[in-house]
Amino acid sequence: MFHKGYIIAESVFSLSRTLNRGQLNLDRFEFWQPTSQLLALDVCLSDAFA
């Protein structure tokens, strides 16, 4: 469970860096922001019930 959460966290971190460099357009940003929050929530829940 922890390993899966780590991979998701790395993905979100990489995505954040890409967004900060402005390589993604606004439509994708608006899509990814809630998605990344859901992924973070999923990590928290999986850690809580692990």
Automatic annotation (TrEMBL):
It holds the Pfam family DUF645. InterPro entries: DUF645 (IPR006959). It comes from the Bacteria. This is DUF645 family protein. The lineage of its organism: Bacteria, Pseudomonadati, Pseudomonadota, Gammaproteobacteria, Vibrionales.
